[in-house]
Amino acid sequence: MSRVDSVLYLYDSLCKEKREFVPINEDNVTMYVCGPTVYNRVHIGNARPAVIFDVLFRLLADLYPKVTYARNITDIDDKIIQEASKNKEDIKALSQRYTEAYYEDMKALNNLDPSISPLATEHIIEMIEMIEILIDKGHAYCSEDHVLFSVPSMPDYGKLSGKSLQDLIHGKRVKVAGYKKSPADFILWKPSNTDEPGWESPWGRGRPGWHMECSAMSKKHLGETIDIHAGGQDLIFPHHENEIAQSQCAHDGKVMAHYWMHNGFINIDGEKMSKSLGNFRLVRDLLTQYDGEVLRYALLSSHYRSEQNFHKELLDSAKASLDFLYGSIRNSENIIPKVNRSGGGYNALLDDLNTPVVLSELHRLAKIINTSKEEANSNIQAELMGLADMVGLLKSHPDKWFTGIKSSKDIDERTIKTIIEKRNDAKKAKNFELADDLRDQLLEEGVILEDSRDGTKWRRI
Q: Rounded to an integer, what distance in angstroms lies between the CA atom of residue 18 and that of residue 390?
């Protein structure tokens, strides 16, 4: 059973309002999040839904006895085929390489592993079966070796995006493929050339359409109707709209998901991130400059439904904020994190994942720790660490956070300790000029010394 004293509210993109979350089955909450198409390293925009819905996964797991969270990998797509051809690389090898890279990047951002990470290529049979059902029910048709979904067959198509059938037809500015009965119809299955990946089907050798992949995987692993379906705002149309159409029509009108959630876009230095502008920020590149937790903190600093402006100042501020938080738990050995479920931070999570308020609460607790008597710190530290764990922060040991090497150019720990020993000897000899020079030498290497009654501690900038 759930924690009856905790009420979770989530913004439902379909209803356009915040709603109390009531699961289909309190003993097993189901959530599906659309993952990446693996033809390249993922950019920071791909990381935002992974981080946001990882926080939701953590919260749901705290509220309910079981959460089944599926986040798929699209490992067959025209973009993958094109990239492999350009690289003169085997398609499967390319998709596997970038799938592993995605897992590595998401782990670096402190994301938990989903319960299930289904691959599209492992669910071709399920896709074919769903397409056959749609054909039998009159919602799909075959044309020139393609199978297409008949959008006019679904009277309420467009309810998620707010697009009507007439809007879609009149909005077509390019030549419509001749095999379509209606300009709005979309592909469920298409033929493959001999040099392209393909699977045998009742309609010939081919491969599935992108939208069909998620409908089939969600059904197999979570059921015909699930609790939450989520992803980036850019997926509302056409991807999620088409998923709803396929799944609802295949399952006799049953809704695909009770809650639809979408995170906002990321802008880079005030401009929309796009290939044409050349302002993509790959997670892997950012990880060479910042710890993954810094990227995570930055992503959580704005409410997930808002657009976020991503820039160097944001990352530098996130790094400074984490330094402050880690500093408050530097003397927290043997303290067990404790979640305060009546605290302001937890309540902020219950209010549609209001992570900016959570971060503010973490800072409030850290300030109390830094200004209170030492014997009173342990309870507050436990509360701070418990709340941080709910959003995937403060997962490193404080000493490692401050002293770990950030890049290949960093001065090594042995050299730092040797210089500190020389400085201590200089201070004992009252050679304060040398001691200051040694301190400045380390500062130039990006190392700050902190003198206290317990000795000299150091941290990297």
A: 21
Query: By the 8 A CB rule, do 459 and 448 touch?
Result: yes
Span 20-41, average pLDDT: 97
Select from 344, 329, 424, 438 the least CA-distant residue to 390: 344
Determine the Cα–Cα distance for residues 27 and 460; give it in Å rounded to an integer.
Answer: 46
Q: Where in the chain is the domain with CATH 1.20.120.640?
A: 275-401
Q: Is 150 helix (H, G, I), strand (E, B) or coil?
A: coil
Report the pLDDT value the prediction gives residue 229, as an integer from 0 to 100: 98
- CATH number, domain 9-263, options 3.40.50.620, 1.10.340.30, 3.40.50.800, 3.40.50.1820: 3.40.50.620
Residue 296's CB: how many other CB atoms inside 10 A?
25
The dihedrals phi and psi of 397, each to the nearest 5 degrees, come to -75, 135
Cis link prior to 238 (omega < 30° from 0)? yes
| pLDDT given at position 1 | 44
Cβ-proximal residues to 165 (8 Å cutoff; 6+ apart), any chain: 151, 152, 157, 158, 182, 184
Whole-angstrom distance, CA of residue 342 vs CA of residue 6? 9
pLDDT, tens digit, 9 for 90 and up, residues 330-367: 887 888 999 999 999 999 999 999 999 999 999 999 99
Could you give the 3-state DSSP secondary structure of residue 401? helix
pTM for the structure as a whole:
0.89
**What DSSP string runs through 284-337?**
HHHHTTS-HHHHHHHHHTS-TTS-EEE-HHHHHHHHHHHHHHHHHTTT-TTPPP
- List residues bridging with 12 in a β-sheet: 17
Residue 72, token pair as written in the block: 């798929």
> What secondary structure does DSSP assign to 166-178, as a single string?
HHHHHT--SPPPT
Residue closest to 210 by CA, chosen among 72, 44, 95:
72
Residue that wins the pLDDT comparison between 98 and 376: 98
pLDDT tens for residues 315-337?
A: 999 999 999 999 999 887 888 99
Domain with CATH 3.40.50.620 in the chain: 9-263
Amino acid at 367: K
- Choices 1.20.120.640, 3.30.390.60, 3.40.309.10, 1.10.443.10: CATH for 275-401: 1.20.120.640
Asked if 226 contacts 69 with a C-beta cutoff of 8 angstroms, the reply is no
Decide: residue 328, CB within 10 A, 0-12 exposed, 13-18 middle, 19+ buried.
Answer: buried
**Identity (one letter) of the amino acid at 70?**
A
